[in-house]
Amino acid sequence: MRALRRLFAAFLALSTFPASAGDTGLDAAAIATAERLREQALAGNAAWDFVAGLTTEIGPRLAGTEADARAVAWTKARFEAMGFDRVYLEPVTFPVWLRHRESAAVLAPFPQPLVVTALGGSVGTDGPLEAEIVEFATLDALKAAPEGSLRGKIAFISNRMQRFRDGRGYGPAVGARSNGAVEAARKGAVAVLIRSIGTSNDRFAHTGAMRYVADVPRIPAGALSNPDADQLVRMIEAGHTVRLRLDISAETVGQYTSHNVIAEVTGRELPQEVVTIGGHLDSWDQGTGAIDDGAGVAITAAAGALIASLEQRPRRTVRVIAYANEEQGLYGGKAYAEARAAEGAVPLHQLGAESDFGAGRIYALRAGVDDAAWPVIERIGQVLAPLGITTERGVGGPGPDVGPIVAKGAPWAQLAQDGTDYFDYHHTPNDTLDKIEPAALDQQVAAYAVLAWLAAETTVDFGSAPAKAAE
Amino acid sequence: MRALRRLFAAFLALSTFPASAGDTGLDAAAIATAERLREQALAGNAAWDFVAGLTTEIGPRLAGTEADARAVAWTKARFEAMGFDRVYLEPVTFPVWLRHRESAAVLAPFPQPLVVTALGGSVGTDGPLEAEIVEFATLDALKAAPEGSLRGKIAFISNRMQRFRDGRGYGPAVGARSNGAVEAARKGAVAVLIRSIGTSNDRFAHTGAMRYVADVPRIPAGALSNPDADQLVRMIEAGHTVRLRLDISAETVGQYTSHNVIAEVTGRELPQEVVTIGGHLDSWDQGTGAIDDGAGVAITAAAGALIASLEQRPRRTVRVIAYANEEQGLYGGKAYAEARAAEGAVPLHQLGAESDFGAGRIYALRAGVDDAAWPVIERIGQVLAPLGITTERGVGGPGPDVGPIVAKGAPWAQLAQDGTDYFDYHHTPNDTLDKIEPAALDQQVAAYAVLAWLAAETTVDFGSAPAKAAE
């Protein structure tokens, strides 16, 4: 089928385009439209009103809560008012985790409260738990502890995430959050506390997903704010034995079916072929999910709406996806990919991109496509250049919810955002609308509109994601 | 007595000093010592260890709690280890206010939790209170509301504090906190909520003292974080009637006697005459009181300890005062002034200064002294100039705890700090050690050491505070 499609594309290229379009499959009119979209986005678009509305009228949107249902209904109605050709829901089912109560305090040597939050998925402490803490500088140091050495104790992983524009400090740090409970339990610990995976000294604890494995006891897991972790480290470095009280009430309560909310601008020539852009609709429960990821849904919806406002539809379909429950395991992205795989539609996916790294300006275009399609990416990059965006080859990767379909062979693009401040707010109560700069939002809408339009308009086939990126 | 003292000072000046000292009453040796103190402070001093110790080993120090008693004992022991000639306690009695529980949520039109904190001194809601809110742009707008117009409603004062280096945005804003409950109750309101008196968009609610008056019903008073206040304003501006649930449990529970903790370097010639420097030892309950005001106590104690480490005592006594319960009504400063007034010791107070504006660098020296003593202030300013400090005449005022003795006629000095960021952290859980820059702390210790040393060393009498400053 892909071969047939290529043949058809080649036929179109020969019959429709001037020779100058060359191997980008884009004619001057397509480029002119892209440039117009870019300027139109900078002059005003729907993103700010979208994210202001979503974060004000829904607020926190923890997957599986009644706010999840309200967010789905709100987004569907908003999409329907934005001029798309088609808006629909697709089911996404997952277990529901609820946070009820959380607190921590130093009991000795220096009694005082601590700022703590339960990690997503954690079990509770079953009433207040009192124990000594044992510090580990890293998850690896915890793994190296002797078996049983933490019996009756709380493991405390104290390494601090480093700040970078591209957020690359996250990867080395986040293992403590994901796997700390399992590794601590293997050594006999009764709970694990980590230094928040965050770059700010603001006294917020950062939540985020953690996991258990089948053969290891499930122990409660929480994160301390950076200042609170510092406080414990000072006590420990002074030679004190530190005893804490930890009280977490949280539970996983059955299954819930939410929805991916999808809006389309239907392609005029190849409506079955799609370019997807989107963000995730769910958020953690403590902030209002403005930068994670109201902004991503708003940016891509506004970009899609600009394309929908053109007189002519793009050659292929542009699909905006507000994914369900990214935070607790990429459920929306997985459901989307599985549904496409089941119907053999993965090869129809020309390019997928997700905005899920806050609301900082985009500085790079990256992609995982066939070598033959790279000239299209470069041509798109030329239209993005006035936005301060450079094209980078051989680096990057798809957004989290695009990952599952990329793993099945779909090509991807990435509009890399400046994430310098992202992990200051990420997964905290401080993720609120005021953290978004409206002008930065406009720049991102412009970039997504250009990318989605030109990717949908080119006659070139993007092929499949290079194996490396699909890993 | 003051006249006699002046005569004695004049005699000393004639007999001891070279003519060049002129009307500053300071000889070259005194200036050289001041310069040495300045450089010594910059090279290292006790302030960081002090504030790190206090905030780590005691943490929050709400007046009247057991942490207050621990803080007094800790500070007395620390002062005793710092080389002072005398360390002692003086009683300070005040009512105890305790915060037990606080939460708020929007019930309609868009249900979601809000970040709220009870104001210091507030009564509780006696269980969850549910009511509509009525927004007022300012306290004055609330005062102008018709009598009875808020019956059964919650008044919401939404004006935002402005950011300035000298913190002058605080005065115009803080009336909403101090008097909002009384004014709202006069109109029939069941509670008052204010936008936090704070300059940051971080999602912390700022607490702080409020007051009731005898003839007006006592209604609960709380502050919302800036992002939460924005959220309510957006709902109201969209035309919605906003209904909240507010649940505050707090109470005032009898009297407690804490202590001003005092350390002295005893004067070699006029030990009864004193120069006082200090900060306040209490803090609000949510942060660890690092910038408000662990820093102030640490800076002035470290400065005093540097003076105590000199081979020769200053002419007059240098007294470091860690005041009790500044936050809830300047109790420590008032008790100190009243005790001095009762024993006729106010005229012995040559100069009083308090560090209670965070831990930002000092940029100005100001004073309220007799005109005849201004040349001393100018000379002190010359020694401070290399620290980036300019001398300003006719502006400023004493620190809060110095105010009561200044009102009784004592002269004052002010080392004005850069407070640009102070109200980002002030009275929030985010007031923690990491907000202090060690090098800035050193600069302040240097300035206080120079000021206290030279004010204690000059033969000139500082007279009394000009009437304006004493108002």
UniProtKB/TrEMBL annotation, chains A, B:
Q: Which domain of life is it from?
A: Bacteria
Signal peptide residue numbers: 1-21
Name its GO BP terms in alphabetical order.
proteolysis
Where is it mostly found?
Answer: endoplasmic reticulum
Q: What keywords appear on the UniProt entry?
A: Carboxypeptidase, Endoplasmic reticulum, Glycoprotein, Golgi apparatus, Hydrolase, Lysosome, Metal-binding, Metalloprotease, Protease, Secreted, Signal, Zinc, Zymogen
Q: Which GO terms describe its molecular function?
A: carboxypeptidase activity; metal ion binding; metallodipeptidase activity
Q: Which Pfam families match?
A: Peptidase_M28
Give compartment(s).
Endoplasmic reticulum; Golgi apparatus; Lysosome; Secreted
TM stretches of this protein: none
> Where is each Peptidase M28 domain found?
260-444
Q: Name one GO cellular component term.
A: extracellular region
Stored Gene3D superfamilies: 3.50.30.30, Zn peptidases
Subunit and interaction comment: Homodimer. The monomeric form is inactive while the homodimer is active.
Q: What is this protein called?
A: Carboxypeptidase Q
Q: Source taxonomy lineage?
A: Bacteria, Pseudomonadati, Pseudomonadota, Gammaproteobacteria, Lysobacterales
